[in-house]
Structure formats: C-alpha cells, structure tokens
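Intended use. Records like the one below are meant for learning the mapping from a protein sequence to its folded structure. Do not use them to infer anything beyond what is encoded.
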Amino acid sequence: MARDAEDTKRRLLEAAANEFAERGIAGARVDRIAAAAAANKALIYSYFGNKEDLFDAVFNALVVDTVEDVPIDADDLPGYAGRLFDHGQEQPQVLRLALWHSLERGGAAMPEAVVAANLGKVEAIAAAQRDGRITDRFPAGELMVLITGLSILGAPDLALTHFDGPEGLAERRRTVVESVRILITKDEK
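Structure written out for the chain above:
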C-alpha cells in the first residue's frame, strides 16, 4: 500500500509540474492535475494540503533536482553556467515554474529548499573568492544571481533575439559561458 501511495504522489507531482508550468498557480486546476495523474482529487488535499502547498512541493522538488543535476563547481563557474543553460533547455519546466513563482509569489519568502540550495552555491563562490581563485569585485551572492541570470536569460523563451536553429542556440550558450568567464576574471593590477 505504501508503494501505491508513493506512486500516486509521484504521478500527482508530475501532473502538477506540467499544469503549473503551463498555467501558473492561479490558472492551475486541481481537477486537471488529478485527471492527468489518474488519481482522486481528494488525494491532492490529503497529501499536500492545498493547491499552493502542492505548487511549493513541485517547486522545491525541481529546485533540489536541479541542484543535484547541475552541481556548482566554483573552480569552473563558466562551465557551471553552461551546464545550467543546458539544463534549462532540457527541463524548461524549471524555468517556467521559477518565473511563475516570481510572478505570483513576488515578495514572498523563498521556500527553505531553495534557500538551502542557493546558500551552498554562494558559500562555494565565497570560498573561491577568499582563496583568490576568482574576483571579489562582486559579493558572492550577487555573483551567483548574475551567473544564474545569464544562464536563464539565454533560454530561447526569454531571448530578446531570434535563434537560428541549433547554431543560434550554441552561440547563445557560448556567449553565456564567455560572459561568466569575463565576470569572474580578476582585475589585472
């Protein structure tokens, strides 16, 4: 029975990720989520509480998965930015859910899983700065925001220019990686 419950939760989370990515929190419907998961709608409330808590569960899981799938390497932040860019291409739901979170929960505190994931990244960057491996012209937290922002804004859905197929996407990736390389390079004195 526990296996069935876990399988149902997994199906609900997958269906909810699709629904929230497409429609946001306000536009999502628990009826559609339950139908897509082939589950009883009452189970959403039983397992997750309400629609907002279900969104948080989906968002937290995707953030944790992203941190595990794309670990930071403070000695190769340009490579990290490239891998984060690639992950965004492979998992567009993550970016969409992050944007929906920002739009619909603007000003709200970030979930603990997101804070914890980013804290580890910021600490890795701060250590690289203390050791003199990368520039300290920007605070570690701001540098992390810049690196993440460059990686995200390179996504075709957010790009301000048109991509010309795979070549255009590859060029955008190269631009993201090189921009981060320039950003972290220590000033010559």
